[in-house]
Structure formats: C-alpha cells, structure tokens
Amino acid sequence: MKHLLGNAPRHPGLWLDLDSHVQDSQHRDITTMPTRTQGRTELQQLSAQLAQLSQQGRWIVLISPPNAIGYKQLLAKAGVRMDRVLLVHAKDEVEVLWAMERALTSGTSSAVISWTQSLDARDIRRLQLVAKSARAMGIVLEEVNVHLQGEALFDNHEAFQQHQLFGPIH
Predict the structure, then answer these.
(1) Are the C-beta atoms of 105 and 27 separated by less than 8 Å?
(2) Interval 14-59: pLDDT, tens
(3) Torsion, CA 39, CA 44, CA 45, CA 50, rounded to 10
(4) Which of 1, 135, 159, 163 is 20 to 30 A from residue 93's alpha carbon, by CA?
(5) Cβ contacts of residue 139 below 8 Å, gap of 6+?
C-alpha cells in the first residue's frame, strides 16, 4: 500500500519536487549585523553569496539601502544579476520591518537585506516570529551610532590634553 501511494498520481497543485519543497519550507534565521560603515563592509562580505542566490531566479531584496555606499557597483562587480535585485524605499522604520516581513515570507525572494537605525525588543521579537515562516535569507544591518561614540572619545581625549597643558587646577 505504501508503495502504491508513492507512485499514485497527485493533485496538480501538489506536483512539486518533494526534496526542494521540504528544503524550501524550512525556516531560516534572520541575522542582525551591527554596522559602522552603513552596511558597505557587510554587503561586500555577502556579495559572493548574493551572486549565487541571484542565479536562482528569485529576488534579492534591498530595503532602504543608503545610496552613499555604492551598492549597485558593489553587487554588479560581485556578479549579482542586477535584473533580480528589487529595491524598496521605506519612509520609516515601521515600513522597513513590514517590507522585510512580506519579502521574507512571500516565497519569491532568495535574500532580504534591510538597513535600519536601531531595533527595540519588540522589533526583535517580531523578527523572531517572522523567522519561523521565512523562506529567504534575512539580514538586518543595524547602524551603530559612530558619531556619539566618536564624540565621547574626543571629549575624553580633550580633557586629558587640557590637564597636561594647564596643569592641575587648585
């Protein structure tokens, strides 16, 4: 009986390659990467993998990438099929997360990369829930505020220099 079921014709909607369907239905993790380079360094590290994924014919989705990093040239140089890159411009952080959720669960994307300022605990939990049904590789590039860290270092350095120049204050 088991043998007959395996060879029995199935409904046309179920005529899928079982191995690829099982592999595709496995959930994928969403990786959060802090960045100090607006994601340029991280995109360079991912570019070879993105080139391979773009050959599958599904979308590589970029959500709100900064133009300053030159992502178009970087991806083209790595061999990413530019006709498979989908660019999404979101007006705020809420739209970034919404677009990422939709792209990850649609089944039409190989990879989804989004740029965001910061994620709070609620956003992180939302992404964890999305990861359970994600059908694509997900990457969140979270901008680390280098400007404030640089100011703190500069302020400490200035205080040290003033102490040396003027001596101790009585």
Answers:
(1) no
(2) 444 434 443 444 446 788 899 999 999 999 999 999 999 999 989 9
(3) 100
(4) 135
(5) 30, 31, 32, 33, 42, 46, 111, 112, 113, 114
